[in-house]
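I am still learning, so can you show me any protein sequence you like together with the matching C-alpha cells, please?
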Amino acid sequence: MKRFLVGTAVNALGLWLTTLVIPSVHLNPYGGAGLWQSILSYLFVGMIFGLVSATIAPVVKVLAFPLYLLTFGLISLVINGALLLLVAWLSRLFGANIFSIDGFTKEGLTIQSLGWAILAALVMSVASFVARSIFKALRIL
C-alpha cells in the first residue's frame, strides 16, 4: 500500500513537471483552480497512470516484444506515449478535459498528439526516475 501511494505521488510529480515543460499537455483541476483542487487532480491522474502502468502496460509490452527486438527498444517510447494518451482518455471519463494533450480530441488521434504524448512520456520517465532515486536514497521506497 505504501509503495502504491508513493508511486502515485511520484507519478503526480512527474505529471506536474510534464505540464510545466511541455506546452501541449494540460491539466484542468476538478472543482476549480484552487491549490488543493490542483494537487488532488494531479494525484488522481497520477493514480490512473499508475493503474494503467500496472495492469495494461505489461500485457502490451509482452505482445510488442518482437517490435522491441526490431527497434532495439525504441518502441517503448511510442508505447509509453500511447499509454499516456489512454490515461488522458480515461481521465476524460471522470471529468470534462481534466487531462488533455493537444491534438487528442473526441474525434480521434492525430499524429501531433502522439508526438506530444511521446515527448510527455519521456519527460515523465526522467522525472519519475529522479524522484524514485531520491525516495530510495531516503529509504521511503
Observations:
- The radius of gyration is 15 Å.
- The first strand starts at residue 25 and ends at 27.
- DSSP finds five helices and two strands in the chain.
- The chain has a mean pLDDT of 86.
